[in-house]
Design a protein that fits this description.
The structure is a single chain. The chain is an all-alpha fold. The chain contains 21 helices and two strands. Strand 1 and strand 2 form a beta hairpin. The chain is elongated and about 120 Å long.
C-alpha cells in the first residue's frame, strides 16, 4: 500500500499524519537527536567549568561552542518549517525542483545559523563592552568569592554544612554548580552585595593565588624546581664549568680590535699582510696575550678567537674567586654556604615572589607536613603576592572603564561572569525546545500507526493535537522544578538572597536589564533543581557517546 493511499485513508478516518514524507520526518528526527546529545553534553561541561577555576581562554572556548549550538538549534527549527512549507506547496500542486528545494532549505538554514551566531555574540559583547567600571571590578571580586566557595576556603552563611564541616560537597553537586553559575552576576550587579565582596577581597585573593598554585604542596614543587635550577648552577660553579661565553666574547672583541689597530699603525690590514711578515705578526699577537698556533694566518678570526677563549679559560682556572651573576665569590664553597649567598637568595626571592630579606632554606623537613615551609615561605610568598595584586583590585572604577589601565582585565572578568548564565539559559532553551520537537516528530507517526490498528480516544486526542503534549510536558517540568526545593533553596542564605533581590535591578551597563532580581532568581531556582536530575545523564552522554569531548575546557584532574 503506497504512502499516498495510507494518507488518504488516514484523512478519511480523521487521523493526522506528519506533513513531511516519512524519510524526511526520520531525517529531521535523527538530526534533532544528534543535536540534543551535543547540547546536553555541552550543558554538563558548562557546569564543570562553573564549578572550578577557569581561565579567560576557556571561557572564550565555551562561549564559542555555546553560540555554535544555539545557531544550530535555530537552523534546525528553520529546517523543520522549510520542509513543511515545501510539502504543503507540493500538496497545492506548486512543486519546486529537487535542486531548488535543497538550495533554498540550505540557504535558509545557513542564514538563520549565521544571524543567530552573530546575534548572540552581539548581545554578549554589547553587555561586556558597555559594562560599567563598577560591574567589572565587582565581577573580579565575585569570581574570587566564587572560587573561595568552590575550594572550601570560605562558607556561605546559611548554607548547610556537609559531614566534613564545609560546603564543598554542596558546590560540587550539579545543583550547586548551577547555582554558582548565576551567583557572580547577581552579586556583581546588585549594589547591596558590593560591600560583602569588598570586605573579603584580600582573603579571597590570597585563597585564589594559593589555589592556582596548588596550595602548600603546589608551591613546594615550585620551590623544588627553583632549588634544582640553583643546584645545576652550583655544580657548574664547583667543577669550574661555568658558562664563560659572554666574558669570552667580550675579550675576543677587545683583543681583535687591539690587533687590528696594531696592524693599521703599520699600514696593514688583516687580509693583506704579506706572507713574509706572518711570523712577526704571530709574535706580536702572542705578546698581546693571545697564544695563536704556529700555522695561524693573520686573517684567521676563528683561530684567533679560539686562542682568546683558551686564555680566558686558563685565567679563570687560575683565579681563587669567580664572578657569579655579577658578584665575586670564592671558589669551591660548599652547597649550604653557596645556597645562602645573597646573590643566590636574591635570585630565589625573585623567582618565588618573596619579600626582601626572606631566607630561603636549602632543605625543608617533610615529616612535619611542610608546616615550617608553609610558615616561613608560603605565607611570605602569599603576603607579597597579595601586596602586589590587591591595589589593582581596589583601583578606581575609572581604571576599569574604556581606556583605563585595567580595562582588559575588567572585560575578561565581566565576560567570565556573563557568559556562563547566558550560555546555560540558551542551552536549556534550545534543549527544551528541541526535546518538545523530538516528541512531536515521534508522536505524530506513532499515534497515526496506533489509530490505524485500534481506535482510542486518548491516542486520538494526542494525534489531533500532537504539539500540546510536548509543550505541556516541558511546562510541567519547569513548574515542578520551580516548586521543588533542595538544601540550597531551603537554606536561610537563599531566603536572604530572595529578600534582597525583591525589586532589585540587574545593572550590567548604565541601563538595567529587563529582568529584575526576583525573576532571575526564579530561573536560578528551576535550573538548580533541574540540573540535579539531568546532569548525570548529560555527563554520561558526553563521556560515552561523544567520547569525553571537552568543548575547549579541561579540568585539572584530566
Amino acid at each position: 500500500m503506497t504512502e499516498q493511499t495510507l494518507e488518504d485513508r488516514g484523512t478519511q478516518y480523521g487521523i493526522k499524519r506528519s506533513p513531511l514524507p516519512a524519510w524526511q520526518n526520520w531525517l529531521v528526527l535523527g538530526i534533532t537527536l544528534t543535536y540534543l546529545i551535543c547540547e546536553l553534553a555541552f550543558n554538563s561541561r558548562l557546569l564543570d567549568l562553573v564549578g572550578s577555576i577557569s581561565t579567560a581562554e576557556e571561557v572564550h572556548n565555551m562561549e564559542r561552542y555555546g553560540r555554535t549550538l544555539t545557531a544550530i538549534a535555530a537552523a534546525l527549527l528553520v529546517l523543520q518549517f522549510a520542509l513543511v512549507g515545501i510539502a504543503r506547496l507540493k500538496k497545492k500542486n506548486i512543486s519546486l525542483s529537487a535542486k531548488a528545494s535543497v538550495g533554498a532549505v540550505l540557504c535558509l538554514c545557513l542564514i538563520t545559523g549565521a544571524v543567530t551566531w552573530h546575534a548572540v555574540e552581539w548581545f554578549i559583547e554589547r553587555q561586556v563592552s558597555n559594562s560599567t567600571g563598577e560591574f567589572r571590578q565587582m565581577s573580579l571580586l565575585a569570581q574570587l568569592y566564587q572560587q573561595s566557595l568552590i575550594d572550601g576556603h570560605q562558607t556561605l552563611e546559611g548554607i548547610p554544612l556537609d559531614s566534613h564541616g564545609g560546603q564543598i560537597q554542596t558546590w560540587t553537586s550539579p545543583s550547586g554548580k548551577a547555582f554558582l553559575a548565576m551567583l557572580p552576576i547577581l552579586l556583581s550587579s546588585v549594589d547591596r552585595y558590593h560591600a560583602l565582596l569588598k570586605s573579603g577581597a584580600e582573603q579571597n585573593l590570597r585563597d585564589s593565588i594559593s589555589a592556582r598554585e596548588g596550595g602548600v604542596l603546589g608551591f613546594y614543587k615550585i620551590w623544588l624546581q627553583a632549588r634544582e635550577a640553583v643546584h645545576k648552577q652550583y655544580v657548574a660553579y664547583y667543577n669550574d664549568e661555568m658558562d664563560l661565553s659572554q666574558a669570552t666574547q667580550r675579550e675576543q672583541e677587545r683583543s681583535w680590535q687591539r690587533y687590528e689597530r696594531s696592524l693599521r699603525a703599520k699600514g696593514l690590514r688583516s687580509w693583506n699582510v704579506p706572507r713574509r711578515y706572518y711570523a712577526s705578526v704571530r709574535n706580536n699577537v702572542r705578546s698581546q696575550g693571545v697564544p695563536v698556533a704556529n700555522n695561524w694566518s693573520p686573517s684567521d678570526r676563528a683561530g684567533f678567537d679560539a686562542a682568546v677563549a683558551k686564555t680566558v679559560r686558563q685565567r679563570y682556572l687560575a683565579q681563587r674567586t669567580v664572578v657569579f651573576n655579577g658578584v665575586t665569590i670564592p671558589k669551591r664553597l660548599n652547597w649550604g654556604v653557596f645556597f645562602r649567598l645573597e646573590v643566590v637568595q636574591k635570585s630565589l626571592r625573585e623567582k618565588l615572589l618573596l619579600p626582601t630579606g626572606t631566607l630561603v632554606r636549602e632543605e625543608y623537613p617533610l615529616n612535619d607536613g611542610l608546616k615550617l615551609f608553609a610558615l616561613e615561605l608560603q605565607t611570605a610568598h602569599l603576603n607579597e603576592a597579595v601586596k602586589q595584586q590587591l591595589p589593582k583590585l581596589q583601583a578606581s572604577l575609572r581604571s576599569y572603564s574604556i581606556g583605563g589601565e585595567n580595562e582588559k582585565q575588567g572585560e575578561d572578568a565581566a565576560r567570565a561572569v556573563i557568559v556562563p548564565p547566558v550560555a546555560l539559559l540558551f542551552s536549556l532553551a534550545g534543549a527544551l525546545t528541541h526535546l518538545a520537537k523530538l516528541l512531536y516528530l515521534v508522536l505524530v507517526p506513532l499515534t497515526a500507526t496506533m489509530l490505524r490498528r485500534k481506535s482510542s480516544r486518548p491516542v486520538r486526542l494526542v494525534n489531533r493535537h500532537p504539539l500540546v503534549f510536548p509543550v505541556a510536558l516541558m511546562s510541567a517540568l519547569l513548574v515542578m522544578f520551580s516548586c521543588m526545593n533542595n538544601s540550597i533553596t531551603l537554606s536561610p542564605a537563599y531566603q536572604n538572597l530572595k529578600d534582597a533581590l525583591r525589586g532589585a535591578e540587574i545593572t550590567i551597563t548604565d541601563k538595567p536589564l529587563f529582568l529584575r532580581g526576583e525573576s532571575l532568581l526564579r530561573i536560578v531556582h528551576a535550573v538548580s533543581i533541574g540540573q540535579s536530575y539531568s546532569y548525570p545523564m548529560n555527563q554520561y552522554l558526553r563521556e560515552t557517546v561523544l567520547g569525553g569531548f571537552d568543548f575547549g575546557y579541561s579540568t585539572h584532574e584530566e
